[in-house]
Amino acid sequence: MHPISLYYADTKEEFTPELREYDERYKLIAENPVAGARFFDMMVKLFIKHVLGVKSDHLGIYSDMKAYYATVEQQGRLTLHLHMLLWIKGCLSPQEIRDRIMNPNSDFQRAFVEYLESVHIGEFMTGTMDEVKAQVDISSENVGYKDPTQTLPQMPPPICNDQHDATSDYVCRKCRKLTSW
Questions:
Q1: Measured in Å, how far apart are the chain's first and last C-alpha atoms?
Q2: Torsions phi, psi of 55, nearest 5?
Q3: What is the pTM of this model?
Q4: 92 by DSSP, 3-state: which?
Q5: Which long-range contacts (CB under 8 A, 24 or more apart) does 55-64 make?
Q6: Residues 13 and 83 placed together within one structural domain of the fold
Q7: How far apart are the C-alpha atoms of 146 and 140, rounded to whole Å?
Q8: How far apart are CA 180 and CA 162, in angstroms?
Q9: Which of 35, 42, 43, 107 lies 20 to 30 Å (CA to CA) from residue 50?
Q10: In terms of DSSP H, where are the helices of the chain?
Q11: What are the angstrom distances between the C-alpha of 114 and each of 6, 59, 109, 110, 117?
């Protein structure tokens, strides 16, 4: 349903994203499943390069990637999704992790279980499922509301390459724009 996926499915050569009705979006992609696969492939490659930092000039969000393995699976609705295993340079190997988890006297085991219990709460950052749904229902009634799944993200401002004094309180306009983005 993403505008870029619909672009791949359409016959237009110029990319001019437009919001379409649900049935039209569904029909367009259903008539051209290759478009959905091309879009999925593009998004996965962009994720690997820009988010994980593989074969790019920057580190990824998990630091320095040693390797990754990914497999694609088709869901019941015939859409694709990815399962990925990441190896991060300098981290414990799977065997070292297993050994530490299996040791009943291990501080690692206790800390690992505490971590898992703290991150798995099944809610959104802004509230419960019912609270978030109520907020979305109210927002969607506003005149000018745009479904975030049907809009393209705002491009980030260019990175500031100016040399700044780290001890100064001054923050240049470019840096401020990038920080607020």
A1: 25
A2: 55, 45
A3: 0.55
A4: coil
A5: 62/86, 62/88, 63/88, 63/89, 63/90, 64/88, 64/89, 64/90
A6: yes
A7: 7
A8: 18
A9: 35
A10: 3-9, 22-30, 33-46, 94-102, 107-119, 129-140, 173-180
A11: 43, 28, 9, 6, 5
Residue with tokens 């099944």: 122
Is residue 165 in some structural domain?
no
**Using CA atoms, how far apart are residues 180 and 62, in angstroms rounded to an integer?**
22
- Placement of tokens 């593009």 in the chain: 42
Specify whether the CB–CB gap between 41 and 63 falls below 8 A: no
> What mean pLDDT comes out for the span 118-147?
85
Same domain, 62 and 107: no
- Check residue 173 and report its DSSP letter: H
Distance CA 44, CA 5 (A): 13
Type of residue found at 125: M
Instruction: Note whether 111 and 84 are same-domain residues.
Output: no
Closest C-alpha to 172, from 162, 180, 181: 162
Give the CA angle between residues 162, 52, 54 to the nearest 5°: 85
Q: What is the pLDDT of residues 65-86, one digit of tens each?
A: 888 999 999 887 778 899 999 9
